[in-house]
Amino acid sequence: HRRRARRLVDRLNLRWKIYLSLAAIILPVFALTMFIQSQVTSPLLEEEVRQIGTSVCRSLSSEILAGRLMGKPDELESRLIEMTWQQPSVVRLDVLVKEPTGLGYKLLASNVVEDTPFDTTSLNVNDSPSTELRESPDGRGYWRIIYPVKDKANRTPRAWIHAEVS
Q1: What span, in angstroms and rounded, lies between the C-alpha atoms of 57 and 65?
Q2: Is 0.85 topped by the overall pTM?
């Protein structure tokens, strides 16, 4: 096999030998560059997506308080749908309020219509904003953001915004 390969190389003209030598150098360097670039940019893109989601929640929180949308669920739902159209990376927006009993949360408005009700028991709701990187069943990552809706006078949240940003 060595002899046959050697004869094949000897038969190639100089131009083809240069092409093959360049390809042997350039292709691995290109592959290595692409790999390093993907490793560096991926965390930056994840952080940018998280910041977009947090910014949308902050803006929505202000709009809810300024427009007194808590008492207008239809208007609030329309606004949630509009915000997801404006920012396509936000795939889900929900506004939650505490149950009257104080145990658990109920869905006040959402941009998603589902046959099964949204399960609020899996949410980690706090008085301060929280973000969590999660994985969907199909293996794609997304950010889950819980953002409290607080007015300046009252430090306890009146509601919470749940967002999923991909």
Answers
A1: 12
A2: no
